[in-house]
Amino acid sequence: MEKGKLIKIGIMSFAHMHAHGYAACLKKLPNVEFVGIADDDESRAKQMAKQYGVRAFDSYEEMLASDIDAVIVTSENANHRRHVVLAAQSEKHVLCEKPLATTKQDAEAIVEVVRRSKIKFMMAFPCRFHPAFKRLCETVESGALGKLLAMKGTNQGQCPGGWFTDTKLAGGGAVIDHTVHLVDLMRVLTKAEPARVYAEVDNRLFGGDFDDTGVITIDFTNNVFASIDSSWSRPKSYPFWGNVNLEVIGTDGVAKMEMFAQKIDIYSDKTGRHTYEYWGDDVNLALIDSFARSIAEGKPVEITGEDGIKALEVALAAYESAKSREAVDLLA
Amino acid sequence: MGRVHADAYVQMPNAELVAICDTKLEAAQRLADKYSVRAFDNVKSLLTDVDVDLVDICTPTHTHFDYIKAAAAAGKNICCEKPLTRTTGQAMEALRLCEEAGVVLFPAQVLRWFPEFRKMHDLIVSGAIGTPVVARTSRCSAYPRGTDDWFADMKNSGGVVLDMIIHDYDWLRWCFGKVKCVYARGLYERNIPLTDYALVTLRFESGVIAHVEGNWARPGGFVATVEVAGTEGLLSYSSTESVPLTIELKAKGEQKAGVTVPESPVSQSPYYLELEHLVNCLESGCRPEVSAEDGMEAVRIGEAALRSISTGQPVALA
């Protein structure tokens, strides 16, 4: 691929709401061209294409047969494998929404398909690109906090509803949706792998047949322990969709990252609500820019399918632990 | 804590501080002089030489049991600083001895008299957030430096898991009832100097899941936070955001940086309210709101957490 050329990108499915965030970035980034949208739901494809001023393709096959370079897969979790395989067959690079898949089998199949192809495959873990996280990594790496001992993370959100609460399509509920971001950040920070997982999981917030509450504890291979709260425990009246918070405990100090703390409070009589308006960096911009650059410059992607597997394994182990009522060893 | 309790008793119209005991006589004497009361360097003399209705034990945790035994044998009512005892076995024995002696054993789980924690309890119980489902508490401070650094003797103090977040176990039990299962990871047994940290997950019989952070590694000083999510809302509290007064002073003389002191003053100290409740109960013969069983159950949770830290598996509470 010649340098300086625009990377042409299409979006496969608007099932996941993050597609909107990515679409907005595709319109903004100077090094990419947002070509079009294909969707299982044709009317959604048409509607979104109109909204973003891009082409609506009649099918994934039609979009993949066009001259696009890459796709962003933002379909339901259970459909990732099918869509990545389609893209790989057409030799289109893929940026894949998290979680990688709903089962380890599907996740490994995706990585295998990618391995046997020439495409670049990147996991959408945009939180890695937040400047506060980068500064946290620098601080830990500099040794300023001493030896890393423990971490505490939350990725609590409002219940997204829709297919996210359909365990067949989502692979679970809150735990599979919200555990993976923090596992990924923790792996980057500790430079170690999850070794043991214990979880308390329940469905009592909404009483549905999906989990809405998860408190997960992880031991890493380097003796660092951590917890993640992945609950959909922000009520509808909460001022923001949720949070990504991470605290780090070291022998010489502690650090606390609140990724979305850069906000303005709005108290509106128009809506009768209090809301946060976030003004910090758009992490999706950096994510897609990184993806586009790795294609344009022939560089390895920053976040791999293996990273996706590692994060997914913890979420799946959390379900297993909640069922067995025991800690689950990942390295066994 | 002995000083705080002594200060509370002398302010009470219906209580009289009569003696101070400390194994270090000069320490006892210093405080005794302040209040013009007698000083002792051993409990035996205290219990025989003065006629008291209540003995208040504020010694290091591992010594609680022996003092409870001595006070109960002398037929004295007992207020005991948390944790009630170092082990659940000791607590059971202490309860039995006090029962037999017909004396009150009051565990000083003072959090129940902190107005913010009482308010949160009352809100939760009144259904303000619907049915409670998932709770998070956090209690952070720098490493405590007690007399002879006794906190650093992890075997005796139980570290952050037993000494610090026992407050939260008790408050959570008050709000959500009986704990069914405990899982914990922590630095207990890791021997990191002047550092302790733990993450404890509790599952209650009512279904509530609670995550409890205990942090003796925070250079920035004390902070406590609570959040409880229910079926109809979310309750959240942070000590750092409940600060009605902040005083900032410019640097002066030798001092390089200015000083910022946040304050959250309340007209009556929670310690006073706690001990006033106890004294009033003793006077009227009513049962205190916090029972010896409550104190024992909090120790049981802490002990289960310590066991979970060493086994890496959850511990069921029968």
Count every helix of chain A, treating DSSP H or I runs of 4 or more residues as helices: 10
**CATH architectural grouping of the largest domain in chain A:** 2-Layer Sandwich
End-to-end distance of chain B, in Å? 33 Å
Number of strands of chain A: 15
| Main beta-sheet strand count, sense and barrel state of chain A | 7 strands, mixed
- Reading the helices and strands of chain B in chain order gives HEHEHEHEHEHEHHHEEEEEEEHHE
Q: Largest protein interface? A: A-B, 35 and 33 residues
The number of distinct β-strands of chain B equals 14
Strand line-up in the sheet with most strands of chain A: 12-11-7-10-9-8-15
SS strand fraction of chain B: 15-25%
Rg value of chain A:
20 Å
Q: What is the number of domains of chain B?
A: 2
Global morphology of chain B:
globular
CATH class category label of the largest domain in chain B = Alpha Beta
Q: Helix content range of the residues of chain A, please? A: 25-40%
CATH homologous superfamily of the largest domain in chain B - what is it? Dihydrodipicolinate Reductase, domain 2
Assembly of the depicted chains: heterodimer
Structure characteristics:
A: 332 residues, Rossmann fold, Dihydrodipicolinate Reductase, domain 2, 7-stranded mixed sheet, 10 helices, 15 strands, globular, B: 318 residues, alpha/beta, 11 helices
Secondary structure layout plus pairing:
The complex is a heterodimer of chains A (332) and B (318).
Chain A (H helix, E strand, L loop, with lengths): L6 E6 L5 H11 L3 E7 L3 H11 L2 E2 L3 H6 L4 E4 L6 H10 L3 E4 L7 H13 L4 E3 L7 H12 L5 E7 L12 H4 L3 H17 L3 E9 L10 E8 L4 E5 L15 E6 L2 E6 L4 E6 L4 E6 L4 H14 L8 H20 L3 E2 L3
Parallel strand pairs in A: 1-2, 1-4, 2-3, 4-5, 5-6, 7-10
Antiparallel strand pairs in A: 7-11, 8-9, 8-15, 9-10, 11-12, 13-14
Helix pairs in contact in A: 4-5, 5-10, 8-10
Chain B lengths: L1 H10 L7 E3 L3 H11 L2 E3 L2 H7 L4 E4 L6 H10 L3 E5 L6 H14 L3 E4 L6 H11 L6 E9 L13 H4 L1 H6 L1 H11 L2 E8 L9 E9 L4 E8 L6 E8 L2 E6 L6 E5 L9 E5 L6 H15 L7 H20 L3 E2 L2
Parallel strand pairs in B: 1-2, 3-4, 4-5, 6-9
Antiparallel strand pairs in B: 6-10, 7-8, 7-14, 8-9, 10-11, 12-13
Helix pairs in contact in B: 1-10, 4-5, 5-11, 9-11
